[in-house]
Design brief:
A 3-stranded antiparallel β-sheet has the order 1-2-3, with no helix packed on it. By secondary structure, the protein is mainly alpha-helical.
Length: 133
């Protein structure tokens, strides 16, 4: 009989069995709470960064418009005439045979289509044709 009592003592649990599941639940709840707070803080920081960059983009857009207006003012015919006159340069409009009209023949080469003097096409070069593309 004595051996039977000892076996029963080994099977008995000392302490409270309901504390372990409750502790696991509390640890999981705290982990989820901390994770949620971390995600919210990170998303708030990203939102502030996006707002700052959008504001900077607006400022750059306004500066771009200002610079385009200044450039267009400098490029006006009256301004060019004033600049030429202030530097003592006398210029006149080109004659019809001095103007070379270019059109896009291929993506990388431009050809002179209006050459009536020699009757042949001349390659004018490669690259951009200018303007805002």
């Amino acid at each position: 009989m004595r051996t039977k009592k000892r076996r029963n003592r080994r099977k008995r649990v000392n302490g409270y069995a309901h504390r372990v599941p409750m502790a696991v639940f509390v640890v999981l709840a705290m982990t989820l709470l901390i994770g949620t707070l971390w995600v919210k803080a990170t998303s708030d920081a990203v939102g502030r960064e996006i707002q700052r960059l959008e504001q900077y983009s607006q400022e750059l857009g306004e500066r771009l418009l200002t610079e385009e207006m200044r450039w267009n003012r400098l490029r006006s015919v009256d301004q060019i005439r004033r600049s030429l006159a202030s530097n003592g340069i006398e210029m006149d409009w080109p004659e019809r045979d001095q103007v070379v009209m270019l059109s896009d023949m291929r993506g990388d080469q431009l050809v002179d289509v209006g050459n009536e003097v020699t009757g042949e096409n001349r390659y004018a070069g490669t690259g951009r044709t200018g303007g805002y593309e």
